[in-house]
Amino acid sequence: MNSFLRIVKYIGGIALAFVLMSILPAKVDQWLNLQDSPFEPIITLGVIILCLAIVIVTFGQKNVFAFSFKSFRDTFIIGGTMTAVTAYYFITNMYKAVKEFGKPQMEGFAIALFLINLFISAGIREELLTRGLLFTFFRKAFGKSKASYIVAMSLSSVLFGLLHLSNLDNAVNPIPIYAQIIYAIGIGFFLAALYARTKNLWGNIILHFLFDLSLMVYPYIYANRSDMDVLIGEWLGSHIIIKSILISVVSILLGLFLIRDSKFKPIMEAEEE
Question: Quick check: pTM over 0.85?
Answer without folding.
Answer: yes
